[in-house]
Design brief:
The complex is a heterodimer of chains A (209) and B (407). Chain A has a single domain, classed as Rossmann fold (3-Layer(aba) Sandwich). Chain A is built from 7 helices and 7 strands. In chain A, strands 1, 2, 3, 4, 5, 6 and 7 form a 7-stranded mixed sheet that branches. The longest helix of chain A has 19 residues. Chain B is α/β, with parallel strands linked by helices and 407 residues long. Chain B has 12 helices and 13 strands. The two termini of chain B are 43 Å apart. The chains are: A alpha/beta (209), B alpha/beta (407).
């Protein structure tokens, strides 16, 4: 049976956090869908709060302490990423962006991404599309068309009365599962020390390689 | 195996006193350090290159020429020379010159620098950093090995019939190391030419250095310069020592906490665990350094960063004393143990002359009488076979047709 590797990152700052709760819901639906389709699923969840000091040190020093490196390795070799952040002051949390900033710019290429965000009111919901989606597009990841925003009121019964939060979670998870099903990213080996191609072409003479 | 020090030439406030030395004071202090390195029995002094404050070393060969005049055995090197933004013609000239005044005690380490604006300041484009490093070095390599060079490349004004003077001492170019923290192509470049590869090693985890060195060794063998174990490897390192380990930690901590690179970041404890930085007793430094061999193999050169982050000169000189008296003698003995006989030492001018000439007398480049240019056929040097059409001496008049200078 093929194994799919899904990584969930949550940038919620409190414990417990509704951001983590949304991340778990998104992950839960995605895993169920993939399992129904006959895949084994390995899921790793990273709370960025636990990595906050490491992320700062990476920004200052240029290398990742071991715990952060494990998270970066997991993300770059995943079949799918579920990324959930609170919306602060009209955009993703600074911690979330700092984490994205220490990821190798090539590491997310072709990676299916399911975006989630949380906020106090539904009026922030477009932040997914004007702030978070361009971030992943820039990195050549593939964010699914449905991003799931959970306002505080969504955790009650009806949300905005059109589509409930569970409906939106399921819709996003399904789009995500469809992409994860097709990717073979986790089977590709990315070696940062591999020479992409021999250097000869650059100086026109390295032994004609 | 060679042991020595390298400096980035930062002028940094001493966090324990709040005092910042002037440029002049720090330059003089560094010259004192370099001399002291020889006095305590170290082999190498290497100097960085920067073109912005708070660094002072914009003109490394001027500095190294002075050090050469004040020392007699110390090997002079750089850490690094900017192969991207310096004109390779000027590098060829400057370092050949330094070879002559120092009687061959020169090698250099090429790098791409870490300050983005240096590229535009010198008319280059940082996005071309890697192609610049590769093309410029190819030209430098030729200028040191061919008397007359015709050249055209992507980045520099073409050269027709150009001779870099003076020719390298004994017609043996300085040995070159290539330094790179994270660019596999540079490891391959070093391997392609059979040059040395130097891993900065001090700001990165050991696992990273290990993989860069492994790649370099593998490519060295691939390009046919010897076995992987015979590749020429240098490592950086960073230590602070006192007789008692805890004294070293206490004294160094304020410098660490405020240092330009890692200050206000990780704790001293985390950083010493995650990188090769060692703060403790001389014995701890010995043990840690001997451990480097476990992950890079037998290597040729170990340089330490000893003088940054505002450490005062007196402290630095004490550190050099500890290195020279207690650390390096033990390291020399221990690194020599179980070192395979076919693993070479770091190349020196003497070893390169021996390799090129055996017991023959090395070439001493002696120009022909001035022909006014280098553009006519052949070489401007007397010992080179000149093709028949060459007209040595004056380019016009009776002298132009004389044949007796032709050898």
């Amino acid at each position: 049976m093929t194994t799919k590797r899904i990584v969930v990152i949550s940038a919620g700052l409190s414990t417990p956090s509704s951001t983590r709760q949304l991340a778990d819901r998104l992950g839960g639906d995605a895993v169920s869908l993939l399992q129904e389709r006959g895949f084994e699923v390995e899921t790793q969840v990273f709370e960025l709060r636990d990595l906050a000091h490491d992320i700062t040190n990476h920004l200052l020093m240029g290398f990742a302490p071991p715990k952060l490196q494990a998270a970066l390795d997991a993300v770059s070799s995943a079949d799918g990423l579920i990324a959930v952040t609170p919306i602060f002051t009209t955009s993703y949390a600074g911690l979330f962006k700092s984490f994205i900033d220490v990821i190798d710019p090539q590491a997310l290429t072709d990676l299916p991404v399911l975006i989630g965000a949380t906020g106090g009111t539904p009026r922030h919901s477009l932040a997914i599309d004007y702030a978070i989606r361009p971030l992943f597009t820039y990195l050549h990841a593939i964010p699914v068309t449905t991003g799931v925003f959970a306002a505080t009121s969504d955790w009650g019964t009806e949300g905005d009365g059109v589509r409930s939060l569970p409906d939106r979670i399921f819709r996003g998870a399904k789009e995500f599962a469809d992409l994860v099903e097709r990717t073979d990213r986790s089977e590709l080996v990315r070696d940062p020390f591999a020479l992409d191609r021999p250097v000869g072409h650059l100086v026109g003479g390295f032994t004609g390689e | 195996m060679q042991f020595g020090i390298f400096t980035v030439t930062d002028i940094t406030q001493d966090p324990t006193t709040g005092r910042t030395p002037s440029e002049h004071e720090r330059i003089k202090a560094t010259l004192t350090m370099a001399k002291h390195a020889e006095e305590v029995g170290l082999d190498v002094f290497a100097l960085g290159e920067h073109h912005n404050p708070p660094f002072w070393s914009s003109s490394p060969t001027t500095t190294l020429a002075h050090v050469a005049g004040q020392t007699s055995t110390l090997q002079l090197s750089t850490a690094t020379t900017l192969i991207t933004t310096n004109d390779p013609v000027k590098i060829a000239e400057d370092y050949s010159m330094l070879q002559h005044v120092s009687d061959g005690r020169v090698d250099l380490m090429l790098g791409r620098g870490n300050t983005g604006p240096v590229y535009p300041w010198f008319g280059q484009d940082i996005r071309q950093g890697l192609p610049l490093a590769l093309e410029n070095y190819e030209l430098l390599h030729r200028l040191w090995r061919e008397d007359v060079v015709d050249w055209s490349g992507q980045f520099r004004t073409p050269l027709q019939g150009f001779t870099a003077t003076p020719r390298p001492l004994d017609d043996v170019p300085p040995f070159v190391w290539h330094g790179s923290i994270r660019t596999p192509e540079i490891a391959d470049q070093a391997a392609f030419y059979g040059d040395g590869f130097f891993a900065n090693h001090i700001f990165w985890p050991a696992s990273h250095t290990q993989r860069m060195i492994a790649l370099y060794r593998q490519r060295f063998e691939h390009h046919g310069h010897g076995t992987a174990a015979q590749a020429i490897v240098g490592l950086g390192g960073q230590v602070f020592m006192r007789k008692n380990s805890q004294d070293a930690v206490n004294e160094f901590r304020p410098y660490f906490d405020n240092a330009p690179v890692y200050g206000h970041g990780p704790s001293l404890e985390d950083f010493t665990q995650q990188t090769p930085l060692t703060v403790g007793s001389p014995q701890e430094v010995i043990d840690r350094t001997l451990g480097f061999r476990d992950y890079v193999g037998d290597y040729q050169r170990q340089l330490w960063l000893m003088d940054h982050a505002g450490l005062p000169l007196k402290t630095v000189l004490e550190q050099l004393d500890l290195l020279g008296e207690e650390v390096v003698p033990v390291l020399r003995k221990e690194f020599a143990k179980n070192r395979p006989a076919d693993v070479p030492d770091a190349p020196t001018h003497a070893s390169l002359v021996k390799a090129k000439y055996g017991d023959e007398t090395p070439r001493q480049a002696t120009p022909n009488a001035n022909r006014g240019d280098n553009l006519t056929l052949g070489s401007p040097y007397q010992d080179t076979a000149v093709v028949e059409a060459a007209k040595p001496g004056s380019a016009f008049g009776p002298a132009a047709t004389r044949k007796e200078f032709v050898r």
